[in-house]
């Protein structure tokens, strides 16, 4: 077991000049590897300004038990100048890491803990008026709604559609969401929290990718705006299924005729693996299922060899394509 994990590798959010301390920025979620795990979030390191430069983090904090990232100190123009490396552009980007553990953090755990990356766009202007924002800006960030969930793991909430920063800033607007999905998909949307949950353990060999739609409606007085964006869930593989022989064929006859040249193929057997796709470097896949001639005759060992070739193929269980591997010996 690998423990708790993040369903996204990256998050992004905007930070404006003079936003008040306490302003929520975004909520980060974690999923469990096994029942009983409780997520604890932590910021260990400095704000990373560039590859060669970082600065002590005085402005951003995270709530350990909820994953809510927020401003602990207002950022003024002097702070912006400090973090923008003397760059007078209206936007500067910094990066920070959020770390994850199943127990309260200790500082020496930062190097070994699971982490995700948050990109903050520091904008050298005050926050825009809500009326100037488009429905897309009010409802979703610029980052795609794309998630990775491990197969065979417990269900749980992995995303919140509502943007905490917008909800905090634009309380006079009514912003509501729906998750549009085909019947029977293992996901649930909670209207009260705007959280999206996976409701059961997923099986990658049954389905590798789910394509949903997140729909947002913004109402202000008699005016109504709607926007829809793709909401994608990819299922990560776990090595949980044995290889199998197509049609149960486990025997091949080899006929060796006179004066055959070296390299002549005499027989072939195929093995399918619905679990894994080709792994690079190539040698790591070859070592997983090796081809060996079992014999006591040294002449056979010297005269014949088994060659291993493998390719990615697609299976179609339940009408949905999933990747697998075809091994030829």
TrEMBL record:
All residue ranges annotated as the Cadherin domain in the record: 141-245
Q: What is this protein called?
A: RET kinase
| Biological process annotations from GO | homophilic cell adhesion via plasma membrane adhesion molecules
GO molecular function annotation: calcium ion binding; kinase activity
What is the species of this protein? Nyctibius grandis
**Pfam families referenced in this protein's UniProt entry, alphabetically:** Cadherin, RET_CLD1, RET_CLD3
Main subcellular location of this protein, as a coarse class: membrane
Offer a single GO CC term for the protein. cell-cell junction
Record's keyword terms, sorted = Calcium, Cell adhesion, Kinase, Membrane, Repeat, Transferase, Transmembrane, Transmembrane helix
| Domain of life the protein comes from | Eukaryota
Task: Read off the InterPro entries from this record.
Answer: Cadherin-domain_protein, Cadherin-like_dom, Cadherin-like_sf, Ret_CLD1, Ret_CLD3
Gene3D superfamilies noted in UniProt: Cadherins
Where does the record place it? Membrane
Residues spanning the signal sequence:
none
């Amino acid at each position: 077991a690998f423990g708790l994990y993040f369903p996204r590798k990256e998050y992004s959010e905007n930070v404006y000049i003079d936003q008040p301390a306490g302003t929520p920025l975004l909520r980060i979620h974690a999923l469990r590897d096994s029942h009983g795990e409780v997520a604890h979030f932590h910021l260990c390191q400095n704000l990373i300004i560039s590859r060669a430069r970082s600065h002590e983090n005085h402005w951003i904090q995270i709530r350990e038990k909820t994953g809510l990232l927020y401003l602990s100190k207002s950022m003024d123009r002097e702070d912006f100048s400090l973090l923008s490396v003397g760059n007078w552009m209206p936007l500067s980007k910094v990066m920070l890491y959020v770390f994850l553990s199943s127990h309260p953090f200790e500082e020496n755990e930062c190097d070994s803990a699971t982490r995700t990356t948050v990109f903050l766009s520091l904008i050298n202007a005050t926050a825009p008026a809500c009326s100037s924002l488009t429905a897309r800006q009010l409802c979703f960030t610029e980052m795609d709604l794309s998630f990775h969930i491990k197969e065979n793991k417990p269900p749980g909430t992995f995303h919140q559609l509502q943007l905490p920063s917008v909800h905090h800033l634009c309380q006079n607007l009514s912003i509501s969401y729906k998750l549009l999905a085909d019947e029977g998909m293992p996901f649930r949307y909670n209207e009260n929290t705007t959280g999206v949950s996976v409701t059961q353990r997923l099986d990658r060999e049954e389905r590798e990718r789910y394509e949903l739609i997140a729909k947002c409606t913004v109402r202000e007085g008699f005016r109504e705006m709607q926007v829809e964006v793709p909401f994608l869930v990819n299922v990560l593989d776990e090595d949980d299924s044995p290889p199998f022989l197509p049609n149960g064929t486990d025997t091949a006859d080899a006929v060796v005729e006179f004066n055959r040249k070296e390299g002549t193929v005499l027989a072939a057997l195929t093995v399918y693996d619905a679990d894994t796709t080709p792994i690079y470097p190539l040698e790591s896949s070859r070592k997983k299922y090796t081809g060996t001639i079992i014999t006591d005759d040294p002449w056979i060992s010297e005269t014949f060899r088994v060659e291993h070739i493998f390719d990615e193929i697609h299976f179609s269980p339940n009408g949905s394509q999933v990747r697998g591997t075809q091994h030829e010996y």
